[in-house]
Amino acid sequence: MIEWIHPTALFFLAAVLLLFVKGTAKQIVLLATPVLGFLCLLIASEGNHGTMTFMGQQLVFGRVDRLSLVFGYVFTIITLIGMIYSLHLKQAREHIAAFLYAGSALGATFAGDLFTLFLFWEIMAFTSVFLIFFGGYKASSAAGMRYLLVHIAGGLCLLGGIVIHAAGGGGIAFNALPHTGLGPTLILIGFLLNAAAPPLHAWLADAYPEATITGIVFLSAFTTKTAVYVLVRGFAGTEVLIYLGVLMALYGVVYAMLENNIRRLLAYHIISQVGFMVAAVGIGTELALNGAVAHAYAHIIYKGLLMMGMSSVVFMTGKRKASELGGLYRTMPLTFLLFMIGGFSISGVPLLSGFISKSMVISAAAETKQSWAFLLLTLASAGTFISTTLKLPYAVFLGDDKKIAATDPPKNMLLGMGLAAFLCILLGLWPGLLYRLLPFPVEYHPYSVGHLVESLQILCATALVFIFFLPKFRSENTISLDTDWFYRKGAAAFVWLSKLL
Q: How many structural domains does the chain have?
């Protein structure tokens, strides 16, 4: 009896098959692969699978436990949603890159040792970059190259840390790592770069908006959430992550408030929402770690929905700036409705998925007497509600009618958004469906009267602020400078100097 079929093998095999199949056969491969991957995880038995010895070290390709399984489930689910959303594409190159990217993310998730983790970590970087290169925008090639160089640097930090840690007697097993020492510190830096923690974050907001219409859905799901997984696995309870996570949550919201590019705005919110997860990892209690995992799960679904919504707007209108859009609720009503479900989810509105996950993180901060973190994360939540759920849809769908000729996108794109929206509602109404998958037993009840009243008060107060100061929130055609300015200028100076020499 086969106890373990690695889902990565299925995704890699499917990527090869896509080179040879067309038409209906191609669509079968696109849809069947993530479904089979999900089924493989359902029947997988816990333990180590696919072990081998290499140069005296034991490599573990399939460490199956509750933590790896919950990320594996959601990775296969979002891959299915993304493939439905991209069914209309005639060329197979984006699908191939997406399958390789998803497969490598699963490979990293189930890696039981640091060298196997590094192998799939690098495959993630080198496959995901093609979703940016294929973007077709003027800036796509340059953004993709910067993305690749930044991740190569992060990979070198990770590899150096692994070698130093192993040479110092720490071994290569990937479990909880020491919080001190050069090796673990370099590993942590490599992880944090993929998590887009400031000041190592600018690659995300720089590159993701230049990706393909469908590719950004996969980009928003895998790299940063794989980083959250490895932080939970290796650095739970590292106090510095609390401060870094809160900074991320606020930093991303502030830049999202200022942003005019509709997909870059959502990219900054990836940084902000991952900040909640990083802070929870730093808090390190069972409630906090469950919160980090639950929020990663919910975020992958609702962020995919939000990215699909704005990508559909770009696809149907050809415009990427909020200041150029308006009045689309008349011509793209279904896109508007589905996007708002994602917006309410990310804002933590009751009965939707973000409410049952984000509240766990904030409650964990309060439970551990981290009152400053509780207040600042609550402030970041209010900022998320304003920028994503109020300001962005107002500018794109409800604002000044620019008389833009557009319709809702193709049916497969609406179906992908619809499936993600359904899951946002399902998890919000039935939190136990997610809670039972989490790594620790859950005794948290999100729908207590006190918590509901508190959440509704914050949401209503935030909405009133938006209404009263609406003119201040109107989108303007501006560009916000971020830390990528430094390496852009540094690279230009290096090229100039090399020409002189």
A: 1
